[in-house]
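Handout for the seminar on molecular recognition.
Each group receives one record of this type.
Step one: identify the two inputs.
Step two: read the structure output and locate the region that could contact uridine-diphosphate-N-acetylglucosamine.
Step three: write two sentences on what you found, then compare them with the reference statements printed after the record.
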Amino acid sequence: MDVNTHNVGALILAAGKGSRMHSPLPKVLHSLLGETMLDLVINALKPIFPKNIRIVIGHQAELVKSSIRNQDCRFITQEPQLGTGHALLTAMPALRAAGMEYILVVNGDAPLLKTERINWFLNDILKSGANLAFMTMTIDLPGSYGRVIRHDGKVTGVLEAKDYDPLLHGQESDEINTGVYLLHLNSIEHLLKKITCENNNNEYYITDLIALAATSGLRVTGLDQGNEEYSLLGVNTPAELIRSEETLRAEIVATWLRKGALVRNPASVRIGPEVTLEPGCELCGPCELYGKSSIACGARLESHTWAKDVRIGAGSVIRSFCHLEKVDIEPDCTVGPFARLRPGTTLESGARAGNFVEMKNARLGKGAKAGHLSYIGDADVGLGANIGAGAITCNYDGKNKFRTHIGAGAFIGSNSSLVAPVNVGAGALVGAGSVITKNVPENHLAVARSKQKNIPGRGAPAHPEEPDLQADSKNRPDF
Ligand code: UD1
Ligand code: CA
C-alpha cells in the first residue's frame, strides 16, 4: 500500500438497528451473495488496516460480534445508540488510547466499498493535509442521503435529508455524503463535544462536524466522486440491498468471465465474493456458489445447483439440481443430478454420488460409487466399493451417532441397511435387502433377511379388471 497508515486507524460504525430493513436481524448482518455487509466492509479495509480496524457495535452487539470472520478486529460498545456522532464520541477514548493521529470512519452499511477507492482517498487527503475530509457523490435521486452544502465551491456543511429544506437551504443539492470520512483527531475532538441532537431525528449526527469544522476555520474537503461510483452507495432498505447485491453479482460474474471461466447464462449465476474459479472451469446458470468455494479448471457445474464452501477438482462434473455444503470433491468425480452432499463429505478421485444420494460427514474412496437413492452418513467407503440403490447407513440410534466402515471393493446390495457401528470388510458382499448389525469379515457374503417362501393359492384375490376409460372420460367435468 502506498499510504503510510501507521498513524491512521479505521472505524466502522455498525451499532444501529436498521429499522428501515423491517427485519429482526441487525442491518449490517444482512448479506449480499452470502457475505454479511459488515464482513464485506471489513474485507475492503483489511488490506490497508490489517490490525487496526475497530467496530462500533450496539444493537444486538453479541450477535454482530460473533458473526465476524476476521479475528483481528476490536470492538467498542455504544449503548444506547444515539446517532453516528454519538458513535464516534463513544469510540474516542479507545482511539486516543491507541495513539492514532487520523481515523478513517466508514458506515457499516456500505457493502460495495473497494480497497482501491479507500486507498486513493487516503493518499489524496493525507498529502493535502485536510483536517476533515469526506467522499461525496452527485446522484439523480438524493433520497435519504445527507446533502452537501457548498458556498463558492467550498463545503460549509452537510444537512440530513429530514432536515433539508430547499426553501431555507437554497437549491436542491444533488451532491450527497457517502459516509466515508478521514478525520484528524486532534483538530476535531473538541468539536465533537459541540454536536447536539436538535434536529428532526433527535440524533447526534457525525455530519454536524462538517459545518462545525468549516466555521472554525479548519480545512474541510469534500471529494466528489461523480455519479458512477456505485461502490460508495449505502444500504438502508431491502430494495437498496438488492440493488447493491445485483451490482456486485454482475461485477463478479463479469470479472470471472474476463479471467477465463466459462459462465453460461451469466445473468442467472450468483457467485460470492470469496469464491475462486480457475480459468477453464464451467458454470451454467441458474446456479449459486458461495463461501470459500473453489472450482478447478475442467470442472463443470450444471444448472440449478446451490453450493457453499465446496472444493471441486479438475474434471469433476456436478450435474443439475444438487445441494452441496462444506464438501471436498477431488478430480474426475460425478455428482447428481439431485444429490445432497452435506458438511464433511469427501469424494476421492473418480467417485460417484448419483441421483437422490445424500451424504454427511462421510467419504467415498477412489472410484467408489453410490449411484442411486442412498443415505451415507458418518461413513468411510473404501476404494472402488459399490453402494446399491436404496442402501443406507443407520448412523443414529436416537441419542448418538456411530460410524460405518465399508472396505475397498465391497459391494452393498440394494436396499440394505447397515446399522452402525458396523464394519463391512474389503471385498465383502452384502445381499440385497439385508439388515446388517454385525461386522462382515473380508471377502464374505452376508445375507441378513428372512428366506423367501412361495405359498400356492395365496396370491391376490382376483386379477384387476381393465378400467373403463371411456366411462371415466364421460364423467369428467367439461372445461
Ligand atoms: C448517514 C449519514 C448521511 C449519509 C449516509 C450515507 C449521518 C447522520 N448521516 O445517513 O449523511 O448520506 O449515511 O450512507 O451520519 N450507527 C451507529 N450508531 C448509531 C447510529 C448509526 O453505529 O447510533 C451506524 C449504523 O449501524 C450504520 C451507520 O452508522 O452502519 C450509518 O447510520 P444510518 O442510520 O444508516 O445513517 P444514514 O441515515 O444512512
Ligand atoms: Ca445508511
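Reference statements: The chain has a mean pLDDT of 95. The CA atoms of residues 54 and 421 lie 49 Å apart.
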